[in-house]
Amino acid sequence: MIPAPQVPQFSPLYRQIASLITQGLQAGEWKPGEAIPNEFDLAARYKVSQGTVRKAIDELAASNLLVRRQGKGTYVATHAEQTTQFRFLRLAPDPAPGATQPAPHEPLSRRFLDCRRQRAPAAVAHAIGLAGGEAALQVRRLLYFRGRPVVLDEIWLPAALFEGLTSTRLSAYQGPMYALFESEFGVRMVRAEEQIRAVAAEAGVAELLNVAPGAPLLSVERVAYTYGDRPVELRRGLYDTATHHYRNQLG
Amino acid sequence: MIPAPQVPQFSPLYRQIASLITQGLQAGEWKPGEAIPNEFDLAARYKVSQGTVRKAIDELAASNLLVRRQGKGTYVATHAEQTTQFRFLRLAPDPAPGATQPAPHEPLSRRFLDCRRQRAPAAVAHAIGLAGGEAALQVRRLLYFRGRPVVLDEIWLPAALFEGLTSTRLSAYQGPMYALFESEFGVRMVRAEEQIRAVAAEAGVAELLNVAPGAPLLSVERVAYTYGDRPVELRRGLYDTATHHYRNQLG
DNA sequence: TAGTGGTCTAGACCACCAA
DNA sequence: TGGTGGTCTAGACCACTAC
C-alpha cells in the first residue's frame, strides 16, 4: 500500500500575511510603482505584530514582488525601471578582448514585425493554459543592439487577456514589453522558466538576423507566469551569439 | 568635481557574525556534511542574541553555504548530495512529446579523457587568478546520459591547489567532481557565473560527441568561485542539445 | 525634525526529529 | 522526552530620506 502523501497543513502566520498582501497586489489595490502602507499600518490591519508583517514583506521582496527603500517605504515592483530592465533579458555584449570591466548594457531598440490573432498550436495552447479553441495572439519582433539585429522573438499570448494589442500600439510604446503589459493590461510577469538549446538558423530567420543560413543560434524558450503561478506567455527567442552571450549566475 | 564614492561603513552585527561563521567554514573548523553548533551556543560564543545568530545563518543558508534541518541542526552544505547534485549542472532531458510531467534526471556517467599539467593561455590564467607562469591543470572529460555522450568539458584549475590530481584518481571517484574537490583538496565551489553561446561543432569535438561536424552546440563557459569570491576554476562545456536543454529560472 | 525601513534583544511557545 | 530549528511578540534604538 502506498502511503498517503504527507501534506504539511501548517502555514506560519507570516506566510498567510504574505499571501494576503499578494492578493492585494493581484486585485490592483496597490499598483506597480506605488508604495504600500508602512509596516505598522499593515500590522494593525492584519492584527499581527510589526515583526510578522516584516517577515512577510521580506519574502515578497525576495521574490521581486516588492522593493524596499530604506527611509522611504516599500514599493510595488515594476518592469518600467532601469534597474529591473535586464532581469528577464539575460543577453549581454561580449567583453572587449583584454578588457577588465564587463561591457555595459548597450542601447537597445525594438522592431515589431507583426501581431496576429491566431489559433495556437496544441503545444502552445497547453503551455499558456488555453482551453480548446480559445484565441491567441502571436507577436514577432526583432531586438537591435547598436543598430544590429541580435534577437528574433516569437511571442504567444492568450488573446482574452490582451484585447486591443496591435502592432502599432506595440511600436508606439517606448520601453520593455512587460512594462506595457502591466500598465495597459494589468498583467504583471512575476517569474519565468527558460529552456535553452543550440539550433541552426533556417533561411527566413537567417535573413532577418543577418546571419548565414545554418549558422548556430541560441534558442531560448520561455514560459512566463503572473501572480498565482498562472502561465500567460510563451516566447521563443533566437539569439545571435556572435557578439553577445546569455549570462547566468549559479548560486 | 566627481564626488568621492560614498562607501557605506555600517555593517550590521548579523553580517559580521555571518562573516565570522564563513571564516570558520573556510578554515575547515566545520567540514562539509557536518553540523555546526546550535544557535544558542553560537550566540554565547559571539556574545550576541540568538536572533542575531539566526539572521546570520539565514543569510548563509540563502547563499547555499549552510543547510538548515528543522529538529536536527544546521549543516555545512556539500556537493556530495543527491539534492545538490544538479545545482551546477543545469542540463535536463527534454520532456517526452505530450508528457505532462517533466522528465526525471537520468543516470549520468563520466569518462575522463586526460588530465595534464600545462601552461594556461593568458585569458585562462587571468580568469583563475594565476600570476605569470604559474602552472595549471587541464582536464577533459565526457558526460554520458543513458550511455550517450552529451557534454564535453574542458576544465582549467590552478595546479597549486590540486597537487596530485590525476586522470586515474578522477576516474576512480564516483560522484560529482566538485564533491571530490571538497573532500580531497579542501576546495569548495560556492558560486559560479556562466556565459552561454551557440557554436558549430569542430571536427574533433563532433567525433567525441557523435554529432555531425558543424552541428550547433551550446557553449557554456563557467568561472567557479570558492569562499571569498576567489575564482578557482574555468570550464568550457560543449553541450549537445538535440535531446537535452539547459534550464533556467528567472525570478 | 518626522517618518520609514533596519537592527537587536529577550522571552515564550510551536513544529519536527531522534532515541 | 529532550534537543533543535521555526514562529511570534513587544519594545528600544539605529540608519536613511525628505522636508
> Beta-strand level of the residues of chain A, as a percent range?
25-35%
User: Strand pairing plus helix content of chain A: what structural class?
Assistant: alpha+beta
Helix/strand order of chain A: HEHHEEEEHEEHHEHEEE
| Strand neighbour order, sheet with most strands of chain A | 5-6-7-10-9-8
**SS element count, helices of chain A:** 7
Which ranges of chain A are low-confidence, i.e. pLDDT below 50, for 5 or more consecutive residues? 1-6
Helical content class of chain A: 10-25%
CATH superfamily of the largest domain in chain A: Chorismate lyase-like
Oligomer: homodimer
Architecture overview:
The structure is a homodimer of 251-residue chains. By secondary structure, chain A is an alpha+beta fold. The first copy, chain A, folds into 2 domains: 13-76, Arc Repressor Mutant, subunit A (Orthogonal Bundle); 82-246, Chorismate lyase-like (Chorismate lyase). Helices cover 25% and strands 33% of the residues of chain A. The first copy, chain A, contains 7 helices and 11 strands. Chain A has helices at 13-26, 39-46, 50-62, 122-127, 167-172, 177-184, 203-209; strands at residues 35-36, 66-69, 73-76, 91-93, 108-118, 136-145, 148-158, 191-200, 216-226, 230-239, 244-250. The first copy, chain A, has a 6-stranded antiparallel beta sheet with strand order 5-6-7-10-9-8. The radius of gyration of chain A is 21 Å and the shape is globular. The two termini of chain A are 39 Å apart. Mean pLDDT of chain A is 92; it is low at 1-6. The interface between A and B is medium-sized, with 31 and 31 residues. Strand 11 of chain A pairs antiparallel with strand 8 of chain B. Chain A binds a DNA duplex (19 and 19 nucleotides) through residues 8, 10, 12-14, 38-40, 48-52, 54-55, 57, 68-74.
